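Supplementary notes for students who missed Thursday's class. We covered one full example, reproduced here. Read the sequence, then the structure, then the short commentary at the end.
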Amino acid sequence: MEIKLTSSEIRTILQGCQYTLQLVGSNKDYRRLQSSEYFSTSNDVVLNDAFNVLGEIVDAIDEVEQITEQQTGKI
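Structure (token representation):
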């Protein structure tokens, strides 16, 4: 089953994920866990990396929409 979402809905979901990651990242217990010498990920990524990636994806969606609107307006 395919879920159909508009680009606006996709952007909203991704921004919501960013907000959630920001909440988790600002949590004292999470910061304690992440700073532990035992905290490790296979690619040395941290929560802030995921936050930044989501931001880049939202920016890319915005850019595609702007270009598409410009092209549509010119035709």
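Commentary. The longest helix spans residues 47-74. The chain has a mean pLDDT of 93. If anything here is unclear, bring it to office hours.
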